[in-house]
Amino acid sequence: MTARILLDTNLLVYCYDRAELAKQQRALEVLGLLAYARIGAISTQVLAEFFVTVIRKLRPPLTVEDAAGEVSRHSEAWTVLDVTRAVVREALRGVQQHQLNYWDAQLWAVALLHRIPVLLSEDFSDGRVVEGVRFVNPLLPAFRMPEWI
Question: Where are the domains of the chain?
Fold first, then answer.
Protein backbone atom coordinates (compact mmCIF):
# COMPACT_ATOMS: atom_id res chain seq x y z
CA MET A 1 0.00 0.00 0.00
CA THR A 2 1.26 3.46 -0.87
CA ALA A 3 -0.15 5.94 1.60
CA ARG A 4 -1.24 9.14 -0.10
CA ILE A 5 -3.78 10.33 2.46
CA LEU A 6 -3.40 10.59 6.23
CA LEU A 7 -6.57 10.32 8.30
CA ASP A 8 -7.32 12.27 11.45
CA THR A 9 -8.99 10.66 14.44
CA ASN A 10 -12.33 12.40 13.95
CA LEU A 11 -13.05 10.48 10.75
CA LEU A 12 -12.64 7.14 12.49
CA VAL A 13 -14.70 8.26 15.48
CA TYR A 14 -17.60 9.49 13.36
CA CYS A 15 -18.04 5.97 12.01
CA TYR A 16 -19.25 5.01 15.50
CA ASP A 17 -21.04 8.22 16.47
CA ARG A 18 -24.81 7.76 16.46
CA ALA A 19 -25.36 11.39 17.46
CA GLU A 20 -23.90 12.66 14.17
CA LEU A 21 -25.67 10.56 11.53
CA ALA A 22 -24.79 12.76 8.54
CA LYS A 23 -21.12 12.85 9.54
CA GLN A 24 -21.24 9.13 10.26
CA GLN A 25 -22.54 8.37 6.77
CA ARG A 26 -19.95 10.61 5.12
CA ALA A 27 -17.08 9.18 7.20
CA LEU A 28 -18.13 5.62 6.34
CA GLU A 29 -18.28 6.53 2.65
CA VAL A 30 -14.86 8.23 2.63
CA LEU A 31 -13.14 5.51 4.64
CA GLY A 32 -14.70 2.83 2.47
CA LEU A 33 -13.32 4.41 -0.69
CA LEU A 34 -9.89 4.91 0.87
CA ALA A 35 -9.78 1.34 2.12
CA TYR A 36 -10.78 0.05 -1.32
CA ALA A 37 -8.09 2.17 -3.00
CA ARG A 38 -5.56 1.15 -0.31
CA ILE A 39 -4.05 4.64 -0.07
CA GLY A 40 -4.95 5.67 3.48
CA ALA A 41 -2.77 5.83 6.56
CA ILE A 42 -3.19 6.61 10.23
CA SER A 43 -0.66 7.29 12.95
CA THR A 44 -0.23 5.65 16.33
CA GLN A 45 -1.51 8.96 17.75
CA VAL A 46 -4.78 8.44 15.85
CA LEU A 47 -5.17 4.93 17.25
CA ALA A 48 -4.66 6.17 20.81
CA GLU A 49 -6.99 9.16 20.42
CA PHE A 50 -9.61 6.94 18.79
CA PHE A 51 -9.58 4.50 21.72
CA VAL A 52 -9.90 7.21 24.36
CA THR A 53 -12.61 9.07 22.45
CA VAL A 54 -14.89 6.11 21.76
CA ILE A 55 -14.83 4.87 25.35
CA ARG A 56 -15.16 8.31 26.98
CA LYS A 57 -16.96 10.74 24.69
CA LEU A 58 -19.40 8.76 22.54
CA ARG A 59 -22.95 8.33 23.76
CA PRO A 60 -23.34 5.46 24.16
CA PRO A 61 -19.64 4.72 24.51
CA LEU A 62 -18.01 1.57 23.19
CA THR A 63 -16.92 -0.93 25.81
CA VAL A 64 -13.20 -1.17 26.42
CA GLU A 65 -13.24 -4.62 24.80
CA ASP A 66 -15.10 -3.41 21.71
CA ALA A 67 -12.88 -0.34 21.40
CA ALA A 68 -9.75 -2.48 21.66
CA GLY A 69 -11.14 -4.73 18.94
CA GLU A 70 -11.77 -1.72 16.70
CA VAL A 71 -8.22 -0.44 17.31
CA SER A 72 -6.95 -3.84 16.22
CA ARG A 73 -9.17 -3.80 13.14
CA HIS A 74 -8.04 -0.30 12.15
CA SER A 75 -4.43 -1.34 12.70
CA GLU A 76 -4.90 -4.02 10.08
CA ALA A 77 -6.96 -1.94 7.66
CA TRP A 78 -4.59 1.04 7.34
CA THR A 79 -0.90 1.71 7.04
CA VAL A 80 0.06 2.70 10.59
CA LEU A 81 2.84 5.26 10.99
CA ASP A 82 4.67 5.62 14.28
CA VAL A 83 5.08 8.79 16.25
CA THR A 84 8.86 9.03 16.59
CA ARG A 85 11.34 11.49 18.06
CA ALA A 86 11.66 13.02 14.60
CA VAL A 87 7.88 13.48 14.45
CA VAL A 88 7.86 15.16 17.87
CA ARG A 89 10.69 17.52 16.86
CA GLU A 90 8.93 18.39 13.60
CA ALA A 91 5.65 18.91 15.44
CA LEU A 92 7.34 21.39 17.77
CA ARG A 93 8.57 23.25 14.71
CA GLY A 94 5.00 23.22 13.37
CA VAL A 95 3.79 24.83 16.59
CA GLN A 96 6.50 27.47 16.49
CA GLN A 97 6.56 28.31 12.80
CA HIS A 98 3.00 27.60 11.66
CA GLN A 99 1.00 28.25 14.87
CA LEU A 100 -0.54 24.76 14.84
CA ASN A 101 -1.69 23.35 18.15
CA TYR A 102 0.59 20.53 19.26
CA TRP A 103 -1.66 17.54 18.47
CA ASP A 104 -2.51 18.90 15.02
CA ALA A 105 1.16 19.66 14.46
CA GLN A 106 2.01 16.07 15.28
CA LEU A 107 -0.38 14.81 12.59
CA TRP A 108 1.06 17.34 10.14
CA ALA A 109 4.58 16.18 11.02
CA VAL A 110 3.69 12.53 10.32
CA ALA A 111 2.33 13.52 6.92
CA LEU A 112 5.32 15.75 6.15
CA LEU A 113 7.98 13.24 7.15
CA HIS A 114 6.27 10.40 5.28
CA ARG A 115 5.65 12.61 2.23
CA ILE A 116 1.89 12.20 2.41
CA PRO A 117 0.43 15.19 0.57
CA VAL A 118 -3.12 15.16 1.99
CA LEU A 119 -4.40 15.12 5.57
CA LEU A 120 -8.15 14.53 5.89
CA SER A 121 -9.66 16.21 8.94
CA GLU A 122 -12.41 18.58 9.92
CA ASP A 123 -10.10 20.30 12.39
CA PHE A 124 -7.95 22.36 10.00
CA SER A 125 -8.73 25.19 7.59
CA ASP A 126 -9.94 23.38 4.48
CA GLY A 127 -7.51 23.85 1.61
CA ARG A 128 -4.65 25.21 3.72
CA VAL A 129 -1.25 23.95 2.62
CA VAL A 130 1.69 23.85 5.03
CA GLU A 131 5.01 22.83 3.52
CA GLY A 132 3.36 20.64 0.92
CA VAL A 133 0.73 19.04 3.18
CA ARG A 134 -2.82 20.00 2.18
CA PHE A 135 -5.55 19.93 4.81
CA VAL A 136 -8.89 18.78 3.40
CA ASN A 137 -12.20 18.54 5.22
CA PRO A 138 -14.06 15.54 3.75
CA LEU A 139 -17.19 16.42 5.71
CA LEU A 140 -17.87 19.58 3.73
CA PRO A 141 -20.66 19.32 1.12
CA ALA A 142 -18.32 20.28 -1.75
CA PHE A 143 -15.86 17.44 -1.01
CA ARG A 144 -15.71 14.71 -3.67
CA MET A 145 -13.66 11.65 -2.79
CA PRO A 146 -12.89 10.50 -6.35
CA GLU A 147 -10.85 13.67 -6.83
CA TRP A 148 -8.44 12.46 -4.16
CA ILE A 149 -8.00 8.80 -5.10
Answer: 5-82+116-140
Mean pLDDT of 13-34: 95
* 5-82+116-140 CATH: 3.40.50
Mean pLDDT of 21-38: 94
Neighbours of 16 (CB within 10 A): 20
Residues 6+ apart with CB under 8 A from 117: 4, 111, 132, 133, 134
CA end-to-end span of the chain: 13
